[in-house]
Design a protein that fits this description.
This protein has 440 residues and is mainly α. α10 (258-273) packs across α12 (293-306). It has 18 helices and 2 strands. Among the domains are: 54-158, no CATH class; 316-435, Orthogonal Bundle (Cyclin A, domain 1). Residues 314-431 form the Cyclin C-terminal domain. Interacts with the CDC2 protein kinase to form a serine/threonine kinase holoenzyme complex also known as maturation promoting factor (MPF). The cyclin subunit imparts substrate specificity to the complex. Belongs to the cyclin family. Cyclin AB subfamily.
């Protein structure tokens, strides 16, 4: 059964299989930020006022500190229930008769103002049922909790400010069981550890007496075209290159056998990744019958024994999938990222960077290329574990490869990504501003 990576939601031509462009968003959509409700301003503990005379209460009222009502706080006030009791001490202090009438008609609205300066809307309540804080106020009762509410509002505004500072988003989708979100962190932690053991020495070619890095570049550039012609999956290409380098690091190969190593590595990668595997005769034909079927099978035995059947290695592709989700990538960004990373497959000098760094640098370079300014989010930094400064060296090398991709001797990758199927990604203008070393 194919993995999730083998079955993306992208609708592509039936006769071609290019980089994965998942149809759904990479980042789980986050709903509105539901903040905890404010304290219930009506839940006031009542206790008997020690002073029977309301006028005496008023004389001992301390002046409340005046705080300006912000627009946000005014909106909260407008949301108070209509039955909120707005009572002023001066109203019932100057109208003792209203206190006596309260037992006959409880909470009856009154419109008399002691100062006779106008009419106010208020309700009459019993003085003995007012708590000490109520005696201290000549403002609506719900303003007793002004300080607590304002503190809550300040906290809410701080939360909003933090949201504006590029929050770290969750790149896993819990709705899809194939994403195994319960284990995804452990899986990529394992990839981080094993990528060191599955990588090769950046100087292994020095131990090869009959081949060099230029021959390796020619081989991989040709294999990229073979991969395109056979319509194979992306995982197959990256695993093929990994098998070639690991085999060349451990075994000396003569020049005329180098192409045989390449086609055999692709055959093994197909058996590991593909659902429908090309037959041996296909690779014999694609190599212009330079080798026989027996040669391919003999080389296959030699490679699997040399590599000890270890094909489960984290290639650049597995990190690309994860990091593109974190970057909330779109189709254009994905295609450009894969264009840059395939340029790096051809270059022997890029072996000194681990697969995770190559993937992160390709996405960073692609983002800068499309936006025309340096761009690396907190979310991408969190999931890749690489800061912008750590990626700059690798990213600048990718920019130089992009600059010479069209005019170089090996143009297989450029021609592949100059087609409609790959969104003309190779036509994008290189992010040359990244080469300015004064930009830090």
């Amino acid at each position: 059964m194919g993995s999730k990576e083998n079955n993306p939601a992208l609708v592509r031509p039936s006769n071609f299989q290019g980089p994965r462009m998942g149809g759904s968003k990479f980042v789980k959509e986050v709903g509105p930020n539901h903040r905890p409700a404010l304290r219930d301003v009506h839940n006031i503990t009542r206790k008997e006022c020690p002073r029977k005379d309301a006028a005496e209460c008023k004389k001992n009222v301390p002046d409340l500190p005046h705080r300006p009502v912000t627009r946000r706080f005014a909106q909260l006030l407008q949301q108070q229930p209509k039955e909120t009791k707005e009572v002023t001490v001066s109203s019932f202090a100057a109208n003792p008769k209203a206190v006596q009438d309260v037992n006959q008609e409880a909470k009856k609205p009154s419109s008399y103002d002691a100062n006779s300066s106008g009419l106010v809307d208020c309700e009459i309540i019993d003085v003995e049922n007012i708590e000490d804080e109520a005696c201290d106020a000549h403002v609506p009762m719900f303003v007793k909790h002004t300080e607590a509410m304002l503190d809550e509002i300040d906290r809410m505004e701080e939360d909003e400010n933090l949201e504006d500072e590029d929050p770290i988003m969750d790149s896993s989708s819990s709705k899809d069981p194939l994403n195994v979100v319960e284990y995804i962190d452990d899986i990529y932690a394992h990839y981080r550890k094993s990528e060191k053991s599955s990588s090769v020495s950046p100087s292994y070619m020095a131990h090869q007496p009959d081949i060099n890095e230029k021959m390796r570049a020619i081989l991989i550039d040709w294999l990229i075209e073979v991969h395109y012609k056979f319509e194979l999956m992306d995982e197959t290409l990256f695993l093929t290159v990994n098998l070639i380098d690991r085999f060349l690091e451990s075994q000396m190969v003569i020049r005329k056998k180098l192409q045989l190593v390449g086609v055999t590595a692709m055959l093994l990668a197909c058996k590991y990744e593909e659902v429908s595997v090309p037959i041996v005769e296909d690779f014999v034909l694609i190599s212009d019958k330079a080798y026989s079927q027996k040669d391919v099978l003999d080389m296959e035995k030699s490679m699997v024994n040399s590599l000890q059947f270890n094909f489960s290695v984290p290639t650049v592709y597995v990190f690309m999938r994860r990091f593109l989700k974190a970057a909330q990538s779109e189709k254009k960004l994905e295609l450009l990222s894969f264009f840059l990373i395939e340029l790096c497959l051809v270059e022997y000098e890029m072996l000194r960077f681990p697969p995770s760094m190559l993937a992160a640098a390709a996405i960073y370079t692609a983002q800068c290329t499309l936006s025309r300014f340096k761009q690396w989010s907190k979310t991408s930094e969190w999931y890749t574990n690489y800061s912008e400064d750590e990626l700059l060296e690798c990213s600048r090398m990718m920019v130089t490869f992009h600059q010479k991709a069209e005019t170089a001797k090996l143009t297989g990758v450029h021609r592949k990504y100059s087609t409609w199927k790959f969104g003309y990604a190779a036509k994008a203008q290189p992010a040359e501003f990244l080469l300015d070393h004064s930009l830090r």
